[in-house]
Amino acid sequence: MSAPAATTGAGARLPVVDYLVLGEDPHLRAHECVSCAARFFDRRVACASCGAREFTEVRVPSQGTVRSFTIVHVAMPGVRTPFVSAIVDCEGTSVRATLVNVPPDPEHVRLGMAVRLVTSPIGTDEKGTEAVGFGFEPALRPESSRKP
Questions:
Q1: In which domain, by residue range, is 47 found?
Q2: I want to staple 114 with a disulfide (CB 3.0 to 4.6 A). Which of 14, 76, 128, 139 is the partner?
Q3: ChsH2 C-terminal OB-fold domain: from which residue to which, for each copy (predicted)?
Q4: β-strands 27-33, 55-60: how paired?
Q5: Spatial distance between the Cα atoms of 83 and 61, rounded to a whole number of angstroms
Q6: Domains in the chain: how many in total?
Q7: pLDDT of the chain along its 148 residues, tens only?
Q8: pTM, 2 dp
Q9: How far apart, in whole angstroms, are the C-alpha atoms of residue 115 and residue 131?
Q10: How far is CA 143 from the centre of its chain?
Q11: Rounded to 5 degrees, what are φ and ψ at 144?
């Protein structure tokens, strides 16, 4: 699986991971084992669950539920803390991601919280190519208050 080809230069956008699909309807893609339906984001030669060697690409739902989270207070230099690292269940597919647009404290983050996929710029190189990452935000957040 690879990200759609994109040109570099001013206005170009590239996903920071190859399983993030950009465009009108951003979403994640996974490799699904045709034998047991286990899903993986990284490329596999064989399924870690059953050993089968055939996979198909599948779209991962963009809505999910927080299954586990931690509030990170210490990170590598240059990474702002605190932030919320979570495991999101997207209809059976576990996604590790950062929760965004929510204060990083237990009063605002809870297990079972409904979330949705969002993308955001990570940085821009000297040619103007923008790197784009993803995270999840609370699903009940009003559309009018979303950050661009």
A1: 13-145
A2: 139
A3: 57-119
A4: antiparallel
A5: 23
A6: 1
A7: 444 445 566 779 999 999 999 999 999 999 999 999 999 999 899 999 999 999 999 999 999 999 999 999 999 998 899 999 999 999 999 999 999 999 999 999 999 999 999 999 999 999 999 999 999 999 975 454 444 4
A8: 0.84
A9: 23
A10: 19
A11: -70, -20
